[in-house]
Automatic annotation (TrEMBL):
Keyword Cell inner membrane: no
Transmembrane stretches, start-end: 157-179, 199-218, 230-255
Keyword annotations: Membrane, Transmembrane, Transmembrane helix
Stated name of the protein: Uncharacterized protein
Source taxon at top rank: Eukaryota
Stretches the record annotates as Disordered: 67-90
Organism listed in the record: Ostreococcus mediterraneus
Tagged with keyword Transmembrane helix: yes
Biased composition (Low complexity): 75-85
Amino acid sequence: EREEKAPSQLRARIFEAFIRQTLSAMQALTTTRPTLAHQCASTMRTHRHASTTAPALRITRDTILSRASSRENDSSSASTSSDESPNGVSDISYPWAQPGYRGAVVSAMDERAQAAVVSAAWLAVCAATYECVTVVGPALEHAAPSLMAWSKSTWPIIGVTYVAAGFAHFAVHDGFVAMMPHDGAWGIWRLPGSKSFHVNWTGVAEILGGAGLMLGSLPFNLTPEALQPILTPASAACLAGLSMAVYPANLYMWTHNSPGPLPPDADESMLTLPWQGHLARAGLQVFLLSILIALARGA
């Protein structure tokens, strides 16, 4: 009988010792957990860029909103819009949706005047592009045919620019969302679908269009013969239309001083683009559109 009780007593003692060790370990873990959490929080504050891409992007949006609204006390009293960003930030909560943000002249006008200014800017880009395609381009080709022939051979390289821009739509997604005009901007802007959706599909379109430009003009006859006559012109035509479709975002940055994509450590001087920058970007828009239209026409 004693021999039968000995194993059971031994098992009971082992089980009791195990329970004590487990409770001690749990108590020690509970005691050190706040310290570990505090250390992790301190590490994240100190090394805010050492995390993965997603936290960095959240920091970018938070940086934009906090710094942009630091001098706009009235933004907190704005009404809530139904159009929200993917992070739940209402459209009107962006401070640049308010009239005259950071000295913006156009957004401080009445809506009819805003619509007139935006329409005039759009027509100016179209007119300048038409002039380049029909007058300036042929004149340069007549004056320096060999130089223009060499230049045309390099035009498909701009596909790299569009591919990079397309990937940027996802790498700094929140910055491109901030560029999108808010619902009712200029008194005329109404676009179904979320801002995030439009940033995503235009990014994919830019990647595909840019890749089409490059693949349609590969050196050493690497492009399949069946695709050579159609791939580059079709890609260029699609990118030209896409450029005009996304141009309102550039106009919105000009009329409302929206910041657009920014690095996480952006300072005050980077929150708005000076008028010289907007003018240079408009010129670049005309330049790219002219090249794309020429490629679409088989130049």
